[in-house]
Amino acid sequence: MPEAREKLAAETASGDSEREFVNDDYTVGWICAITIEHVAACVFLDEKHEPPDHVSTNDDNDYILGRIGRHNIVIAVLPYGEYGLSSAASVARDMLHTFPNIRIGLMVGIGGGAPTEKHDIRLRDVVVSVSRDGKGSVFQYDFEDTIRNETFQQSGFLNQAPTILRTTISGLESQYEIEEHQIQETINSIFNKKPHLRKKYNRPNPATHRLYRSNIIHPLAEDINCSTHCGEGAPNLIVRSRRDGNEDDPMIHYGLIASSNQLMRNADIRDKLAAERDILCFETEAAGLMNHFPCLVIRGICDYADTHSNAEWRGYAAMAAAAYAKDLLYRIPPNRVEALQRMNSFSSISEGISGLLQAQKREHHDEILNWLSSTNYAIQQHDYFRNRQPGTGQWLIDSNQYQAWLNTPGEVLLCQGIPGAGKTILREEHAEALLQNLLRQLAQKRPSLPACVGTLYKQGIRGIPPSLEALSQALQTVAKDFSKIFIIIDALDDLRTKSAVNIFATSRPDTEIADSSVRGMFLLAKLHLNALTGEFTTKDIRNALDKLSVGLEAYDDAYKNMMTRIDSQHPQRKELARRALSWIVHAKRPLSTTELQHALAVEYWRHELDNRNFTSIEDIVLVCAGLVTIIQQSDQQSDQYSNQSSGQQSGIVRLVHYTAQEYFERTQAE
């Protein structure tokens, strides 16, 4: 097959070599999201053309023009550092303005696979978007609602690709079954011409191909080695037999692709949704092309939509997807493409543009909500439910007091308990931050962003922080649109005003009802267990248990013991731990993992940052002896605190509990 293609390419090139092309000569639009996808697309061109002589006003796309087989191709990539539905939609819109004769579209790149017993999807495989029930081949889902409810919250379908693409898919599938595909050979032919691409785009070592069980979670820090931390043994991995030599490899899968504005990084929910909808792949751009850019979505599998990124597979996955797209184009007669209706003449184009504007508006709304509060409650709530023991808190739900509060308008329920007793769902130290959190949660439930919230944002980006009064007024304005609201507040000592909403507050108990014993409390038990990690014999453990403190001073003693453990480390590890704790305790806002790494890498005698001086987050957490934890954040939220590129996971660095912050503030003179 590669030889036949080369012959056809040579024949076509001989006829077009002297021809000058105009924008109307291009009938196929190819959209990529990131650089590796763009590189893969460009290297598979049989011939590269000169850049366009002109582009439409306000078209900011960067185009590569060329030919594959007998089709003239326009290739565009999303702006650097951007990804998601609205970015893809903007690129498609501008492409159609500049190249009005485009008849078919391709969205080619990488995605996260959803392996099941039914679908043996592996890294390197290719997923092609096709419909099995006539309802569309890609559908858009709401990420936060899906995470929260653990079921797809569908928000739209991508129309099926044009008939000529779907019939060609069937023909190519038959061709592959009869002759076997030559995708690997096609990729190798590129490496023969451009050997420098092998390092990044060649097929990785099979040892790096790992499918972890859903309960194995990779640490948030990207630089932590997966095989070292998560293991390579059978208990943690799903062991699959090698593919038979007679099977296609990479394998081509045909089915439904799920698309949202955020990356799917949760194996439990991946498995649940894959079973529910027979999903083969998760990605973040295709739904942005809904209905106004009829296209085929082709995804090379580079990870398993979980916390294990498998970054080394991205280059090869992009090459495999592009190789499939090239095979597909070679089977399509040019006259059949030219016979299709122009995309920009569709009667639904106005609706498509309206959808684009709505998507961009939603993205701006997300930016404002993230400015109000960086906490992603959907992810946080799911993590709480995931980590709690079955039945935890059921006694509260069943209590008469809780039921009365639930069913009586305007009631306040105060749940008291000592620090670390397990009350916390969310917590903020300042009233302004508390109101901002409440305002965010109410505002994101509205179909459109309240004007008062937009006003606060405009003032905020000009350097005017929202006052307590302004936040209170905005909260009251937004609350009027809801018939009933339940607010749960943690660490609230007093409620001074009446309200039309029901408030559930947790607080430390009054002194006179404080229990002198804190045995059995969750946080203290965790701290005590951390203190035992340095003991190796039964005798040592029993002696350490006998020395554990009781009473309300137990927390201070536990933190003091943890500091003693830190100080007993090697001097270099001790110094790293104390510097990290100093940054975390004294920071005016929570630090991201990246910010903490940069702060610790600074050498006061140097004028420039030495990139060789970064410490892994894993090591920082380790030397802090249990005092530091990482709170997961979504990509958009983590971008507020760091300059990480899109698609990477980040986290917020915090002390293990607010009582630790109080301890350090009391004892900092020491």
Give a brief rundown of this model.
This protein is of the alpha/beta class.
Task: Please give a structural write-up.
This protein is of the alpha/beta class. It has three domains: 2-205 and 248-342, Nucleoside phosphorylase domain (Rossmann fold), CATH 3.40.50; 381-513, no CATH class; 522-667, no CATH class. It is built from 26 helices and 17 strands. It has a five-stranded mixed β-barrel with strand order 5-10-9-6-11. α19 runs parallel beside α21. The longest helix is centred in the middle third of the chain and has 24 residues, at 349-372. The N and C termini lie far apart (75 Å). The relative contact order is 0.10. Mean pLDDT is 78; it is low at 345-350, 424-429, 493-498, 510-520 and 634-649. It holds the Pfam family WHD_GPIID. Keywords: Repeat. Residues 572-664 form the GPI inositol-deacylase winged helix domain.
Using brief descriptors, characterize the structure shown:
NLR-like, 17 strands, 3-stranded parallel sheet, 14% strand, globular, alpha/beta, 3 domains, 5-stranded mixed barrel, 670 residues, Rossmann fold, Nucleoside_phosphorylase_sf
